[in-house]
Specification:
The protein contains four helices and no strands. By secondary structure, it is mainly alpha-helical. Helix 1 packs antiparallel against helix 2 and helix 2 packs antiparallel against helix 3. The model has no long low-confidence stretch (mean pLDDT 91).
Length: 68
């Protein structure tokens, strides 16, 4: 599945508001561009994505049935 397919899936399933899936989309897009960017730029973007994921925290606790 490429980033376009993943984006279409997110739209079709109304999952665009699920932040962990948006992180997956960002990772997929970065993976697709890896060959065209410098290793330093790749590492920086990966670090940014990782930090955003860590900032999500444990927001789902108590509402697992609703969001997963």
């Amino acid at each position: 599945m490429d980033s376009k397919d993943l984006a279409q899936y997110l739209e079709a399933t109304n999952s665009i508001f699920k932040p962990w899936l948006l992180v997956q989309l960002r990772l997929k897009k970065l993976q697709e561009r890896r060959a065209t960017i410098s290793p330093e730029e790749y590492a920086q973007e990966l670090t940014d994505i990782h930090q955003d994921l860590m900032n999500l925290g444990e927001w789902w606790q108590g509402i697992e049935d609703e969001v997963f």
